[in-house]
Batch of 2 targets.
Target 1
Amino acid sequence: MAAKSMDELVSLCKRRGFIFQSSEIYGGLQGLYDFGPLGVELKNNIKQSWWSSMVYERDDIEGLDASILTHAKVLKHSGHESTFTDPLVDCKKCKSRHRADHIKDKCPVCGSNDLTNPRPFNLMFKTSVGPVDNDSNIAYLRPETAQHIFINFKNIVDSTSRSLPFGVAQTGKAFRNEITPRNFIFRVREFEQMELEFFCEPGSDKTWHKYWLEERLAWWERQGVKRENIQILDVPCEELAHYSKGTYDLMYKFPHGLEELEGIANRTDFDLGSHSKNQSELNIAAKTDINENSNARLAVQNIESKDWVVPYVIEPSAGVERAFLAILNEAYEREVLEGDKERIVLKLRPHLAPIKAAVIPLKKNDSKLVDLAIEIKSNLQRSLKKKVVLENTGNIGKSYRKHDEIGTPYCITVDYESIDNKTVTIRNRDTMNQEVIKIEELIEKLKF
Ligand code: ATP
């Protein structure tokens, strides 16, 4: 059974240290969140699983980590300066502000229908680079990580000698001044993206588009997001972004409704074409504006014909926060136990769990037990290079409940047998079954 409400997830996240509102002690800043001790682990594990599937488990993808502050010309030629806008309406009565496509004909705050006409509102955060603040040194906080992959295309091809098809993967922060951030971490103003730009020959793009759709669905399933909870939306032509020839949106049943989890777009040759010099010498299919600022030709040369080809791009783009929320929602269960008892359990896939194991001495005041527990915990954490914790409360039942709720796959109890026979009792989070194993077997058991 998935979470009943967003409130349950929000409460768990705060109580256990997954997510806090940003700047909370000063009243909070809307649309911004901080990831606490458990949140940062889950977030890192999600990104690591994505990176591994893209960069280590295949041979055709390179990585990139580009700057967040972005040259204004990049976002001029990408189309963001002119088109990255949402229609905005103001309520003349209560002065609240809303996205026109999110409301019907009344103000959702006060009910008034005295609204302004929709006006475009650019979602980018603007700043300036250097000591003087004027129009010539405007920079933006990037609204997506993708553009830096496009503008580094030549650097990457020259330094790696890659030929088509190949991809470039990047994870990192993106910023959008959303008019109405809402639904916890679903729509925020600062978030992280996991984006792949996969470059292929024009004409092979449709096949690669379908291929990446299947790859991504399989990845989500490996993170515990069930296939039946994702709907594929083939975005209608009139709703496509300016760069896209076709987009599949993976729509997930979030606690607040069916919404986009990831977009998989066919960006054609729009981006490389838009950022290229001498565009008229290239056979660019997309409609691009003239670029007199770029000093690079973002194309590859066909070795036999010597013709320059501007690759097509397939882009699977997922948000880390939305992944976090979907994974949490899928894993969250309220189980009824014998004797009308209840437990909340987070059935996270073990590779995503923030803490891999909790080591619990049977008695908190017995120094022999506690010392051995500390030694086991330290050895495991050092070997696994993942978080393992000591629970020295003296209350095993309470420790089990806490670790069920935060998704720790195993609890390890250290008792007198541990001292005499070098064995421990290990309890499985999901089945609650316990078995006795040798201390030396623990590392193998916890390698996820
Ligand atoms: P939406 O229609 O929900 O605003 P979008 O279509 O603008 O999203 P894209 O530009 O395709 O989103 O961005 C790719 C991914 O980045 C999205 O699928 C989503 O997971 C994530 N994302 C985009 N905007 C936000 C946001 N404000 N907060 C959290 N994640 C976001």
Target 2
Amino acid sequence: RKRIGILTSGGDCGGLNAVTRAVVRRARDYDMEVFGIKDATVGLMARPVEAELLDVKRVSGILRYGGTILGTVNKGNPFAFPMPDGSLADRSAEVIEGYHRLGLDALIGVGGDGSLAILRKLALQGNWNFVGVPKTIDNDVGATEYSVGFNTALSVAVEALDQLTYTAISHSRVMVMEVMGRDAGHIAISAGIAGGAHVILIPEIPYTLENVCKKIIDRKERGNNFSIVVVAEAVKTESGAPITYTNSLGQCLYGGIGQYIGNEIALRTGIETRVMILGHLQRGGTPSPLDRLLGAAFGVAAVDLIARGQFDCMVAWQNRRVVAVPLAEAVAQYRGVEVDGALVATAIGLNTYVGELDP
Ligand code: F6P
């Protein structure tokens, strides 16, 4: 029997368990055994290798759970692995050997662009048969229109905006909500439109605080007692400085630009303003139906690729189809928000301030 492995790597998100479940169910059709590897490449580094044989019973019902039953790590690059003494060590050889110790014929890695690039490097060096599945709330993986997890994060963000709007109206306030997205503004632009925001700031488009405030004051003058502002985490200050919060141990914690924008709005407009950082809520929760669908489609397609002997590729969603794209192509094409695309045009059409675009 063929033995295949599956691991989830990088930040968790909605829909990961739908991928795992689909892989196990599809593998049964080919009489393949599936090993769920614990905590991404850390499980392959462990001795004995930490992996669990997954059968259909084990994955029954998991598609509605948040997170990943396999566990994951976000800062575990085996080429620069953080050691207890604070140093970084190259432990890639141990990870590569872990695959062979498990006797795998192929591996499915579910990850974002960073994880997929690392897994590809391991696969090439270690002679692994590898298939990638794109997942990330940031939706920034190249060559696919959607990655698993984005839609769940979007749903959480829109629900939060709906709730913030009531309190904003009740108190005649400006509410600023900072969302995740790493270097891209996909969650911000989509949630901002769907949640009815009046200002949406994304890293792909520059802005001026003067025009952010003008928008809010114009609304007040027209009799609107509240405004909703959505800010993507990678937006910089008006002068271009990044804002990060670092603690006394030098660890960079999440969140910050929302406070800056909110404070500037409060000072410049005199309108009472409150800030909320949505943070890791976007990663968890019940996976949305669309993420379950995408996860299922990708899981089935990944096993089909293995059965056909097609490796070094990633499953992708393009034009309502699941296709296989070369992994090298996918990891090389970072995908931010298209400034001339439909979403930015829609926001402008709704008279939302999205920054300073060329006329
Ligand atoms: O890539 C997913 C993501 O949630 C980003 O949106 C965010 O910047 C980052 O991970 C947070 O990472 P961590 O969970 O390690 O704080």
